[in-house]
Write a structure and sequence with these properties.
The chain is an alpha+beta fold. 42% of the residues lie in helices and 22% in strands. Helix 1 runs parallel beside helix 3.
Amino acid sequence: MLEKNIEKIFKNEVEKIGGKAFKFSSPNNNGVPDRIVLYRGKCYFVELKRPKVKPRRLQKIVHEEFQKLGFKVYVIDSVEKVGDFISEISTS
């Protein structure tokens, strides 16, 4: 499955529960997560990948910077992980 297919499913599933999944672009800041999800007053950062593909070194560094600021970055590489993410944010 291609990343763009997972991304489309992800966006649709977030919208089904009433959230917004915005494409995240930050000029001159490479490595930022693909999506910002807003749901029930909370903000989630999500990196989408093809199955079994890991974040690049720069992405890992940026994810660590986000974590130091108190934000978790979710890495989703399958439809199953999309479901796991939706379940987690729906119950928190």
